[in-house]
Give the backbone structure.
Amino acid sequence: MDIVKEALLHAKTDLGACITIQEAGTPLKAYGLRGTVAKIEAALAALDAKSDAATWPDQLTDPLREALGLMNFTTGPIAHAYRAAGHEIPRKCEDEQAFVLHRLAGIVLKHGPDWRRVAGDELKAMRDTKATEPT
């Protein structure tokens, strides 16, 4: 992916130079280059978004095992907190558990062994926001 990104950056720079030359009055056929630059910028943004996305590990990690091993009697109250904060979660325990495990798996993939603190901070922030809302 780094090679693709580097190639796109070079292409954008070269096309930008062509546009600048044409605008300066040099007889250069650069029709459609602005649209191409916009497409390159969109491709670069998509690459950046992909590089920020977590990838699923081939081997089960300890933090992921911990999060995915949570039982429904543990995930239920967590789902209730998310629901109270405005998330739409069906009221079946299987759906609540699936929502929480999905949410926690994302946190684990992004933060690794620090996942419990991050998840706890998120839940606390939701509780604090809810507590400060006018009733």
User: Anything to note?
Assistant: Residues 26-31 have pLDDT under 50 and may be disordered. Helices lie at 2-23, 33-52, 62-68, 72-84, 93-111, 115-132.
